[in-house]
Predict the 3D structure of the following.
Amino acid sequence: MLRGMGIGMRVTALLALALVAGAAHAQSDDEFHAAPYLGVAGTWGIEQFENDGGRSHDGVGLDTRLGFRFLPYLAAEAEWEYFPGFDTPLGGLTTHALTANLKGFLVNENTGPFEPYALVGVGALISDRRGSGDYGLAMRFGGGMNMKFSDHVAFKVEGSYVQPTGDVDDLEYVSVVWGLELSL
């Protein structure tokens, strides 16, 4: 269904869905409580691979997170992003990105259920490109928005750029994530 749509249309559709969902939320006036959270989401990897002559194609995968929100404007999380098959000239390419992220939220009394944030992370990217488990350091930069349905449930959309080094330095990609976050 999404194959015929350009990237701009896909992102616009996801953001529109998020805005409609967030507008239906009634913001509670409870004070902030530090809490752990779990996230599970779909992810679309827009490949930016080097040295493939433009013959690789995007992948769809899974994004999971375990984090802790210390302050209304700061959280730390561990993220695992899994792509079971970027389509490359050599066949399917499986990647795992494991990063530790810091998220800075822009929240105040005027943001309501919307919580925009920026994130930065560092970790590793592992691929099965040569059947041997190539890996390298990976950095992640991005931003997104949580749309809170309640004090414990939020829908999120996020975009980030993953820049690996080492054996996998040519496997950079843009990650577009959509899913749920549950505060415990």
Q: What stands out?
A: The beta strands are 35-47, 59-71, 74-88, 91-105, 114-127, 134-148, 153-164, 173-183. Residues 7-25+33-183 form a domain with the Porin fold (CATH 2.40.160.20).
